[in-house]
Design goal:
The protein has helices spanning 18-21, 120-129, 136-149, 168-176, 184-191, 195-206, 210-227, 232-238, 244-255, 259-273; strands at 8-11, 26-31, 37-42, 47-53, 57-61, 64-68, 72-76, 82-86, 91-97, 114-117, 158-160, 306-310. It is of the alpha+beta class and 313 residues long. Strands 11-6-5-8-3-1-12 form a seven-stranded mixed beta sheet, covered by helices on one side. A five-stranded antiparallel beta sheet has the order 2-9-4-7-10, covered by helices on one side. Helix 2 packs across helix 10 and helix 5 packs across helix 6. The longest helix is centred in the C-terminal third of the chain and has 18 residues, at 210-227.
Length: 313
Amino acid sequence: MWRREAGTVVLRVPPFPEQAVAPFAIVAGLQVPRVPTEWAPHSHPRHELVWVRGGTLTSRVEDRVFTVSEGHGLWMPAGVVHGGRATAGARFYEAFFAPDRAPFAAGFAFEEPGAVAMTPLLESLLTHLSRTDLDTAARERAEAVVFDVLQPSEHRFALQLPGDARIDAIAEALLDDPADNRSLEEWARWLGISDRTITRAFRHATGLSFAQWRQVLRAHRALALLAEGLDVTTVSETLGYAQPSTFIASFRRVMGTTPGAFLDAADGTADRSAPSDPSDPSNPSDPSRASRLSGLYGPFEGVRNPVLPVQNS
């Protein structure tokens, strides 16, 4: 994935507490990592939906890297091995769906990892389901509506990595430094192969030319940088663009909208879905909510099951 931030903590995910949540079709929780956090590759016996507020979430599944920011979530089917990262201070939400009780038709989009549109209604329902004081009838009503409103996002948020030994070094170098502006000819000399070989390999592995693939990679990295509060000019420079206008045009080609419009849409969703009543049990400021939204694997205090802090790699 992208270069790790300094001070990142890598966590192992403990076994899923199936016995504790067995009666429920959907269970939900919240964590707030105090430091940049990475979850080592793992899988779950249930389908997982994760989303963040105040940061970004990145996940790698085989040769795909997903980057989702506010207003969107990531759906991970049961049994799919994946690793993930969340930025420090991001409110990291997760919901798990029992596969045998999720009424998804065969061939439905949720059979594969992908982005989900986190509408205010969907977020409110999942927040409601995080409560432990719901009776069976209330829970079943809310779960039924969740299945009605859960929809894939119109954005893909997936970067396809080549998975080709001839050009994987290029992909890893650009993941580490998206601003690397070496030309196709320079990459070819670095690898000791022809530029035509690189072109054919990228087209075969990703369906894109090398230039197009680098544009997509930079747009995905821009999502995280913009979510961190960097302005368009700074993001443009960080990603190696000569002018902000060039970055904006490239971002639009990949995402279908400008960086500013993309952030405005996400901010609007966050504003509409934010609880406003301090006494509302779905309000994150409610102290009694901590026991209900403490992470589904047990109380969450900054980091869970830390393995080791890592430096940039």
